[in-house]
Amino acid sequence: MPSALLQLSRVSRTFQVGDETVHAVLDIELGVEAGETLAIVGPSGSGKSTVMNMMGLLDRPTAGDYIFDGQPTRALRSADRADLRNHAIGFVFQQFHLLPHLTALQNAELPLRYRGLSAAQAAAAARDALAAVGMGHRSAHRPGQLSGGEKQRVAIARAVAGRPRLLLADEPTGALDSATGVRVLDVLRGAARDSGAALVMITHDAGIARALPRRITMRDGRIALPEAQ
User: Fold this and answer.
1) CATH number of the domain that 15 lies in?
2) For residue 149, what pLDDT is reported?
């Protein structure tokens, strides 16, 4: 049987806005297996970004438990959460978040240098990741010299260079045209498969969601459809 990489158990997340308590996520039960690919879909305000932030250890649940790779995370200190995030989780965002003054290679190296790898080790891993997403020939180019699809490939390389257990993608095709988005999705899925990472993707694009083997729909902070095939 596959092993659960992460488990959200009765997880809720609330925010206080003035006198009002906003329930962003309510009693979420969700497991993701090692190596699994999952799309989370739903309208704006449905809670899907909040769920992703909790999966990525960026936010803490207000209630419930989040277990990552067998480790309960609620009581972890901020420094321990940051260390776990750096070693085990990769992020891909809609707006790429590449540093404009760095080359593609330097952008892909950056998380590895924060992890403590030597310059040579980080460069070797980053080169391999760029080659895997078809960007090895553009490693010396800066983001301003790259197309939107190329920037997203560099962002994917940066996310997988450290071989994370979990890859989180927040609208990774949202800033791209349809044809480029499909190509980037293929690259993202291939990169996750090659690195052995589970892939969880937020998307508004129904076509992108249908391309993934498992999908859940969120509405009003809850999972509306546990799995829609």
Assistant:
1) 3.40.50.300
2) 93
